[in-house]
Amino acid sequence: MLTIRYYQIPTASRQLIHEPPPLFPHDTSSSNYKPRVNNHEYWALDHNHADSCRGFITNWLAAKPLDLFQVQWTPSSTPSLRFLRSGAGRREMLMFIAGACLKSHHHHKIAYGGAAVAYTCVTESYPLQLPLPPATQDNPHTSNRALIFAAFKAVELSLVFSQTEVFDSVVLACDSEYLVEGITDHVPTWVKNEWMMSGEDRPVEDNDMWHLLLEKIREAERWGILVQFWQIPRELNEAYVFAQYAVQSRLASTSAYP
């Protein structure tokens, strides 16, 4: 079983070495101004520039998530513990995401997927654990589909937090090259090709879920929140074990009704 580490606080010395990047360009027209928490001013982000910054990059290649982000209280009327780092006029929030998929031995080996989002320390709240929406013939449950769903729920959750908490960007950390490369390198091309594979007469796999994720990211950008993705080793992904739990809970419920 994965050891739960995300309640640990990194050293202050490491925190001082790595500061967030400067502010990203915003659309500052009056029609896009959105005042929010504690008179903190927000403008909609430029989508094209946000797309170019979709991958989270640190100049310390060996950096672990909790080397850069600290467990801190959010500045709000109802403070909550989050994984945060601040500097250069910015405040960034970290969330761990994971997806999993297992087959049921009671229902013709049907696969069931689950997702998890770890957004705070375990002493504050356990990670969000969710089953995937019902599978269809065209869209069966897979671990990749579960992970995209986890990313969608994480962005959705960040929008909820943004109504009472102040932050400029959310970093989604996962151990999947499929998700990180997909959202940073391939999605813009897929959109131009109307969700068809380049040079092939077939749709992008899980294009419905990719589309939902992109729409939720665009919604966050309209509220001035940059969404970035960071690929980390699986052993550092605090959400991984909880995605497994989400699936196991679903399998337990199905095995009760043979």
TrEMBL record:
Superkingdom of the organism of origin: Eukaryota
InterPro entries for this protein: RNaseH-like_sf, RNaseH_domain, RNaseH_sf
Domain RNase H type-1, first and last residues per copy: 92-218
GO molecular function, one term: RNA-DNA hybrid ribonuclease activity
Protein name: RNase H type-1 domain-containing protein
Species lineage: Eukaryota, Fungi, Dikarya, Ascomycota, Pezizomycotina
